[in-house]
Automatic annotation (TrEMBL):
Chain coiled-coil ranges: 96-125, 255-282
Organism per entry: Myxococcus virescens
Top-rank lineage group of the source organism: Bacteria
UniProt-recorded name of the protein: Uncharacterized protein
Keywords: Coiled coil, Membrane, Transmembrane, Transmembrane helix
TM stretches of this protein: 21-41, 47-64, 71-93
Amino acid sequence: MQSNGPSQQNSLGPKKKTSMGVQVLAYLIGSCFGLGIITAIGMTGTPGIILGVLAVAGSIFAIVKVPRLRVLASFGAIGGVVLTLLGLGAVGAEETAQARAQANMDEAKKRRLEAEARATELALKFEDLAASSKNEDVLALCEQAVSAGGIPANHKERCGTLLYAQGQARLSKERSEGLRYLALAGQIESSKRADAVALAAKTERDALRDDTNASLKDAQAQLAAKDITSARATLNAAHKRIATALQSEPNDKPLAALQQRLEDLTQKVEKEEEKQASAKRRADYIKESCAQVSRTFGPSSKLSDIQKDELWKSYKGKGFAWNLEVVEVSEGMLGGYTVQFKCGRNSPSLIQDIQMSFSKHARATVMELQKGAVYEVEGKLTSTSTLFGLGAEPL
């Protein structure tokens, strides 16, 4: 069948062909993005910036000239921007690091020059010293030179001897100053170096023993005054000093003996601490005896049930410390252990006055209880019953 008009054409018009050269150029420039990614992984900085810019340019060119690559080129443009920003950041970080390194080098150079200037100045002063110079002047110069690390070899013996002698002289009056001079003498290669080190070590040990004995005396006075907090603080500080010294001198018997004295006194402080805690705790305990409380709430009480309930509010949860006689020890119905007590050998109760519940972890404690024996028991009242007496739990 023949058509009645001219042949139909695409409504959008004829397709425009992209030249092969343009396509090749777009692919080459767009590939900068891939190279940029590799560069970002392997290196950063200026190469990354250049390749990132080329990737963006190539991607834009591809978007305009190669419609089929628009989606891919869009991602390439975004990646190129990111790559460029990463390159700029790397360059900035590199410049900052270089500036910091240069500043450190400048500071080190400045300190070195200052040290060299001080050493030169001290060397000139030592050259001006005559053999007959006053010891005070030489001593001051030696002290400066040790700090600067620049004593000429021909003056080390004299400096070491003077500093050692000064340290010896100061020890009896100003121990810290004497130790300072001995430490300086111990840094100089002279015939007195070993003597200075040994004397300083002996002085420090003697000082530690004196300080520890003083701490023991103070702690004993504090214990006698019932000042447990201060006594414990004094002993703890002394313990630390002795422990540190024994790490370097483990075979020092005098120090070991002092440590034992500290431990013995610490045990006394702990016992007094427990005693004070117990006294403080007992201050709020029930003042009445077990028998009095038992009669108040027992079957022989003159109070009515409603009166007992009201009065019990002031007893429930209160602690007590009573001498109780063990009637029986058994396993509890709900676990743990139950101990039945009487208020004493003359208790009028037929079975028990008070029943205490112990946890399963108290097995060792309840196993030691003997029937008929009397023990001082600390506990807390938990319940009352006309039939079963008082209920309690241990503290």
